[in-house]
Amino acid sequence: DMALAASRLKALLSPVLHCKPTRLFARYNVAAKTAQLSKSGLRLYCVRMDSTGVLFRQLFEPESCTYTYLLADADTKEAVLIDPVLETVDRDLKLINELGLKLKVAANTHCHADHITGSGLLKQKVFGLKSAISKNSGATADIMLSDGDTISFGKHSLTVRETPGHTDGCVTYVTGDQSMAFTGDALLIRGCGRTDFQQGCSQKLYKSVHQRIFTLPGHCLLYPGHDYKGQTVSTVDEETKFNPRLTKPLDEFVKIMNNLNLPKPAKIDIAVPANLVCGLHDV
Ligand SMILES: N[C@@H](CCC(=O)N[C@@H](CSS)C(=O)NCC(=O)O)C(=O)O
């Protein structure tokens, strides 16, 4: 009957549309709405529960335009938080508690320069929580990650791919089925992380993206560490076709990166030292 057909269609379309239909409207003109949304206290996030039973939330911190990602095993309730932000720790914990999840690991994609990580404060608030960061980051954490390491949550896991270039310690976290990758600041949607401080190197970044991210399956969903225009998700196929920087040959890419002329992140002088020790609250 019609109801059954409609529910089957919805189920079929769900992974394609990715967001709950009501949230799809928020995708349009999101840049113009971001300030308004944050003022009204509404959370801008994307929802997914795929057939493998990974529960997923994309959370946004509007001051630094940082994405935090929550992934959990829907059965065991074990959860991982990628790139938590100090200012939104209570929001994240509220959601984690509402969903009945057990937060096991707070994993950073790198030592951030623009905001303070929430890992240290989370460790104070969640008994047994472990922090994780690349061993090449210069920072301290409970779990020091190397290429190929995995972070498990229930029957699921994230695999570490080292993607240096924005910083030496940048990593991309890839789900076990390679359907999602969390690229931090190595690859942004139609952009990439800057390479003008913290060991930044445009040649290294180009190699990382081409060899470690663009080699993932074309349908792999790419979730960046930031977005300044309201974009939420991309795919390997899309970025290999439309990324205005990384589709260029290496020499042109290097020229683009040398001429970005971006102002220094406002919080760099407090964020970097704090993030070397897991945020203001220490490991
Ligand atoms: N205005 C922001 C900093 C914006 C910025 O520099 N973003 C970084 C990632 S955070 S270090 C970046 O790599 N941007 C690339 C780009 O093309 O925009 C602030 O003051 O915090």
UniProtKB/TrEMBL annotation:
Subcellular location: Mitochondrion
Record family assignment: Belongs to the metallo-beta-lactamase superfamily. Glyoxalase II family.
Keywords per UniProt: Acetylation, Dioxygenase, Iron, Metal-binding, Mitochondrion, Oxidoreductase, Transit peptide
Stored InterPro entries: Metallo-B-lactamas (IPR001279), Mito_Persulfide_Diox (IPR051682), POD-like_MBL-fold (IPR044528), RibonucZ/Hydroxyglut_hydro (IPR036866)
Catalytic activity: S-sulfanylglutathione + O2 + H2O = sulfite + glutathione + 2 H(+)
Organism superkingdom: Eukaryota
Gene Ontology terms: biological process: glutathione metabolic process; hydrogen sulfide metabolic process
UniProt EC number: 1.13.11.18
Protein name, as recorded: Persulfide dioxygenase ETHE1, mitochondrial
PANTHER family assigned: PERSULFIDE DIOXYGENASE ETHE1, PERSULFIDE DIOXYGENASE ETHE1, MITOCHONDRIAL
Entry keyword Mitochondrion: yes
Assembly and oligomerization: Homodimer. Monomer. Interacts with TST. May interact with RELA.
Secretion signal, residue range per the UniProt entry: none
UniProt main location, coarse: mitochondrion
Recorded coiled-coil stretches: none
Cofactor: Fe(2+)
SMART domains in UniProt: Lactamase_B (SM00849)
Organism: Electrophorus electricus
Main EC class the enzyme belongs to: oxidoreductase
